[in-house]
Amino acid sequence: MKFRCERDELVEAVSAAGRAVTSRGSSLPVLSGIRFELTGGQLRLTGSDLDTTILVDKTVTGEQDGVTVLPAKLIGDIARALPPGKVEIAISGEDAVITAGRAEFTMRTIPATEFPRLPEPGTDAVVLPAAEFAEALRQVTVAASTEETRPILTGVQMSAEAGGLRLVATDSYRLAVRDLPGTSVLSEGQSVLVPSNALKELGRLLVGAEQVTLTLGERDATFNVDGNRLTTRLIEGEFPNYRGLIPASQPNRLTVGREALLEAVRRMRLLATDATPVRLVMRSEGLEIVAIAQEIGQAHEELDAQYEGTELTVAFNPEYLIAGIEITPGDEVTLETTDSMKPALLRSIDSNDFLYLLMPVRVS
């Protein structure tokens, strides 16, 4: 195999495919590498940990077709260190020779025959606007759990809902729901559970793209974006019944500027160490935000806000509250509450397509 391409093109392709390469130990050493396959002027790079696979297609100047596997970390480090301009990669026996300018590297390859055969995409597909889908992913993946002991909660549920696609994630402390009206690859009532880590990687691929094609198979989901293809295994199991957690109505409603609230809570977090909660004191005169850290100090700040309901103090984990404010769109947000111990709903006043539910923290 022999081809030439620009250094920056190689770096981009290796970086994208390499994000699917396993970072943990594997019984298959070949999974520590990226598969290079050249056919004519088309180069395909494949990285996989068996759960998530990323394929990247690039147009190059090809001289000799072939296939090989190169160690992902080493080829990535070398590519980034090469001088700008043309790079040539040539495979000779068990070695790969990488040349750019006066720099030359030789590395051992991994037998391509050891690379596992990967599933082909399904046939049911739908095209989604990339920017809107990327924003939806950003809003829901933040609420997915990172605890592998509860794999169901590490996924994002995609379901057919009211003529569109609904994305839901929860770690049992918070819940994010985003609707994409008018488009769904699923039939009414059908749902799949997609690993949130794979969707976070997809978010990187979506940057600058115009559209993404989602294809569902029996056990996997595939996303095609501008010559890149990400395939991930679906999570098996029953997603929690989240609908009962979302109150039909809340008696108390706070309306406040999003940026002002975000900046104030960030300031209060300076004292909210070791998961010290931030308290929101809501009354008709406005909003007061308080942080009290025993043996350290305390802070408070008042904000202009509209409040309808009974005077109430509710405390939240500051990290979870900040994350919710950051992903809620619009200039103003509402916080709907029942009492200090029941779930609170954070929404934008500009859109009904997104909500963030957050469990309060008990304080004395």
How would you describe this structure to a colleague?
- This protein is an alpha+beta fold.
- It folds into 3 domains: 2-114, Roll (DNA Polymerase III, Chain A, domain 2), CATH 3.10.150; 124-244, DNA Polymerase III, Chain A, domain 2; 246-358, DNA Polymerase III, Chain A, domain 2 (Roll), CATH 3.10.150.10.
- It contains 6 helices and 26 strands.
- The strands form 4 sheets. The protein has a 9-stranded antiparallel sheet. The chain has an 8-stranded antiparallel sheet with strand order 6-2-3-4-17-16-15-10.
- A hairpin with a 2-residue loop joins strand 11 and strand 12 (164-170).
- Helix 5 packs antiparallel against helix 6 (318-327).
- The longest helix is centred in the first third of the chain and has 12 residues, at 7-18.
- It is elongated, with a radius of gyration of 25 Å.
- It starts with a strand and ends in a 6-residue tail after the last strand.
Kindly name the structural category.
alpha+beta
CATH class of the largest domain: Alpha Beta
Strand order in the largest sheet: 14-11-12-13-26-25-24-18-22
CATH superfamily of the largest domain: DNA Polymerase III, subunit A, domain 2
**Helix share of residues?**
10-25%
Average per-residue pLDDT, rounded, comes to 92
Q: End-to-end distance, in Å?
A: 69 Å
In DSSP terms (H or I, runs of 4 or more residues), the helix count works out at 6
Total discrete domains: 3
Count all strands and give the number.
26
CATH architecture tag of the largest domain = Roll
Please name the CATH topology of the largest domain: DNA Polymerase III, Chain A, domain 2
Radius of gyration (Å) = 25 Å
The major sheet is characterized as: 9 strands, antiparallel
Strand content: 35-45%
| Low-confidence spans | none
